[in-house]
Amino acid sequence: MFALTVLALGFYGYLGGFDAPSxxxxxxxxITIVGKYYAGPVEDNQFGQLFQEIGKALEDKQIxxxxxxxxxxxxxxxxxxxxxxxxVAVPAAxxxxxxxxxxxxxxxxxxxxxxxxxxHVLLAPNKLYPALFDYLKAQKLQVKxxxxxxxxxxxxAVVEAELIK
Length: 165
Prior knowledge:
Layout: H1 2-14, E1 22-27, E2 31-41, H2 45-59, E3 66-71, E4 81-90, E5 102-106, E6 111-117, H3 125-139, E7 143-151, E8 157-163
Antiparallel strand pairs: 1-6, 2-4, 2-5, 3-4, 3-7, 6-8, 7-8
């Protein structure tokens, strides 16, 4: 049992589970995302299938870039429904867009709270969002209900939220 615990802790550490997120207020960079919009229950199979579809499009190089999502709900609200744009951040919009995909562009130059962590994509959201909301509470700041996630390979995962002045 001890060996299993050590193995599990080692694997958790390998995935970045012990990585402490860093938080900063910065100016955002412009970003273009190719993807699909989803609104509905978090537990719906369609939501999970959308992530699989985007992952396959990346793997097959149908779209080249970094996994990126925009959430239009506050994850702290713990509701059973979600509004999200699931996709890939691209350096330039492909033309034509893959069938069924659309484009979302976020302008740069906005003041955002940026949280980064080297944790694996499976662990990162559960590290990034608590760090974001703890920081907001401690600094008495508010953000818009739009959360940008980016999961570049071999780099830190990122969550950004635009500050309300």
